Amino acid sequence: MDEKVNSRITRKSIGGTVYVVESMVSDAAKETAYEKLKRLILTGAKSRENISNSSDLYQQIHSTSSK
Question: How far apart are CA 34 and CA 40, in angstroms?
Answer without folding.
Answer: 10
